[in-house]
Design a protein that fits this description.
about 350 residues; alpha+beta; Aminopeptidase; about 35% helix
């Protein structure tokens, strides 16, 4: 069983020429918030977002098959997908395609509890073996190729019995622009050994400054790790923590030129559901205004690995943990669950 929980931890960002990606999915929420970071520039930034961001024509399954929120439940749940036109973790892998033509290589569920005092970013291993509604058992990322965004949403909703309020997907080029505007990041690698990627970059435990090419290699690599994709998820989360902190610093949020640059470079590579317009983004940013120091990150636990009947290497779900997560989401206490691990 594998669990990963951590908090956003402050660390100064450093210079960098380009960006890395994959955790781009969760950064989408932050960038959407930047659209309304300054009231003075609201109209300009909102117009930039509205004119550039693409919209999923079909975002959600039929209403009658979706979970219904309890009357007291005011939480917000956002499904975030990462895509990579260059193949994510390798061009030979058979990954489903997202609508923009990239490949789905990262899936996260962001949960904002009803009290708005924290935010949880839950990574979902792409090789998790689950029931895809109407299609039997598959890896969870197969839902995208079998039925697009609506079936992906339906799979997540049936897995955790939770309502998905918004969907966002972003490709690598968009994230390049965001990190470029930030000036790079310094990432804390939590892996307890040094490792060298296929591109020839060597990473050591602890904090280290990364160029965009190094960071991209860092979040893609998995060949060196005994648990493969699970350690790659941890690396993605470490990178995300660095980007989240730097993006949410007051100096960045109060810098109109930097905010405008982030929105201009990111929004053309962002695809959202019809309800996530500039107004919804503004409300989201307002709801998250006090959560920058209360971001919990966790990975959906696994119950071991093996091979499916058709020969695919998979992660089995931890059924007890899945029940606990379902209950925590229903009670809007995923923060307590994350911190109890």
């Amino acid at each position: 069983m594998t669990y990963e929980v951590d908090h956003v931890r402050p660390r100064p960002a450093r210079r960098g020429r380009r960006a890395a990606w994959i955790v781009v999915t969760a950064v989408a929420v932050v960038v959407l918030g930047l659209v309304v970071a300054s009231v003075r520039y609201l109209n300009t930034l909102s117009n930039t977002y509205e004119s550039n961001a693409q919209v999923f024509v079909e975002s959600f399954p039929e209403e009658q098959v979706r979970p219904v929120k309890a009357e007291h439940d005011e939480s917000i749940n956002i499904l975030l997908l990462g895509s990579d036109d260059n193949g994510g973790s390798g061009t030979t892998e058979d990954l489903p395609r997202v609508p923009q033509g990239g490949r789905s290589d990262s899936m996260m569920l962001i949960h904002v509890p009803s009290d708005r005092e924290s935010m949880q970013v839950m990574s979902i291993p792409r090789d998790l073996w689950v029931e895809v509604p109407g299609h039997g058992s598959h890896k969870i990322n197969a839902a995208l190729s079998l039925g697009g965004i609506p079936l992906t949403v339906s799979t997540i909703e049936s897995l955790f019995q939770v309502r998905v309020d918004h969907v966002a997907a972003v490709d690598m080029l968009g994230f390049i622009g965001v990190v470029d505007a930030l000036g790079g990041v310094t990432v804390n690698s939590g892996y307890d050994h040094s490792f060298t990627t296929e591109q020839g970059f060597t990473f050591h435990p602890g904090w280290q400054e990364m160029t965009s090419e190094e960071a991209l290699s860092f979040v893609r690599h998995r060949a060196s790790f005994p648990d493969g994709d699970l350690q790659r998820v941890r690396n993605q989360q470490a990178f995300l923590r660095a980007v989240l902190y730097e993006t949410l610093t007051p100096s960045n949020l109060r810098n109109p030129a930097k905010v405008q640059e982030m929105v201009e470079t990111f929004s053309p590579h962002l695809t959202v559901d019809e309800t996530l317009d500039a107004g919804a983004a503004a409300a989201l940013r307002w709801n998250l205004r006090d959560t920058s120091e209360s971001v919990d990150m966790l990975t959906v636990p696994t119950g071991g690995s093996g091979y499916s009947e058709d020969g695919q290497w998979i992660f089995y779900p931890d059924e007890q943990a899945m029940d606990d997560i379902t209950e925590a989401l229903a009670e809007s206490t995923l923060d307590e669950y994350a911190n109890s691990l």
